[in-house]
Design brief:
5 helices; disordered C terminus
Length: 176
């Protein structure tokens, strides 16, 4: 098995703590063993290996800076950057999925949601049991989330819907 050891042209290692290096090594090993062997075929087949979401959750890659009380890792933002860098090395889709789950779904719930919403959604998002999304493009506004006009009406057809439009999470508790 090939072990990836990148050059450190910018002396980043000098800026990282031992904890950051352990996190990087863990994520790097996971990418080498779980992502690299399957990602090319998944790309060629136009598929996303969804089972990796649970593994990413087990690794603490979702919302790593969210407090542990919500089943997240409770790490710092540098750890988040280290994790995303290693995931990106394996595949941009994997990194994108993890960063959307973290920054566009979990963080707004943590920052702007009620305590009830945090307790309901963050643990399942942190473990990968629930997959969040963010609809960025819509007619008349393109990729400007501040101008989004998306509306959602819960019809009771699915177990849970979670929609964050324009970073307004006040209605999340009504879905579920």
């Amino acid at each position: 098995m090939y072990k990836y050891t990148p050059p450190d042209y910018l002396n980043i290692d000098d800026l990282l703590t031992d904890e950051h290096k352990i996190i990087r090594s863990s994520i790097r090993d996971w990418v080498d063993h779980s992502v690299m062997p399957v990602i090319e075929k998944a790309a060629q087949d136009h598929e996303f290996p969804q089972y990796l979401f649970r593994e990413l959750g087990d690794l603490g890659a979702f919302g790593p800076f969210i407090p542990q009380e919500y089943r997240s890792a409770g790490l710092d933002y540098i750890s988040y950057g280290v994790i995303m860098t290693e995931l990106e090395r394996g595949d941009s889709r994997i990194r994108s999925a993890a960063s959307v789950q973290t920054s566009l779904v979990m963080y707004p719930v943590f920052r702007f949601g009620s305590e009830g919403q945090r307790k309901k959604y963050l643990p399942k998002l942190a473990t990968g049991e629930m997959i969040g999304c963010f609809g960025l493009t819509e007619p008349n506004h393109g990729s400007d989330p501040g101008s989004m006009e998306t509306k959602f009406t819960y019809e009771g057809f699915h177990e849970t819907y979670l929609l964050i439009a324009g970073m307004d999470v006040t209605g999340i508790g009504a879905f579920g």
